[in-house]
Design goal:
Length: 111
């Protein structure tokens, strides 16, 4: 079984936890999320940092689930669901975004 590539060891958080390691930017953009079972569904990304993102979707995911985020024009980004609050989710990227990629995504969301 393939193990996620999260370092340091990932600990699921709750919606009230504030373990953020990077500044978050408010964004509003449609994207797709895919889980290991290959289910692909649409989400709304509502904020982004170099270490993760927050999104809303009616699709049910559970903390600890490995997912791949696909944003327009970019390859899938591996992440893990950190917390869930009804239809809102916080996810941590397996590898932090490069600052230039982060800036590019934020700029796309403002169009």
């Amino acid at each position: 079984m393939e193990q996620p590539s999260f370092t340091p060891p990932f600990e699921p958080m709750t919606a009230g936890d504030d373990h953020r390691q990077a500044l978050r930017k408010a964004v509003k953009m449609r994207a797709h999320l895919r889980d290991r079972g290959q289910t692909r569904f649409e989400i709304e990304v509502t904020d982004l940092s170099m270490s993760g993102f927050r999104a809303e979707t009616s699709f049910t995911l559970w903390p600890g689930t490995v997912v791949w985020l696909t944003l327009p024009g970019l390859a899938g980004l591996e992440a893990m669901v950190a917390w869930r609050d009804k239809f809102k989710y916080g996810c941590a990227f397996a590898k932090p975004l490069h600052p230039a990629v982060f800036d590019h995504i934020v700029a796309l969301s403002q169009r």
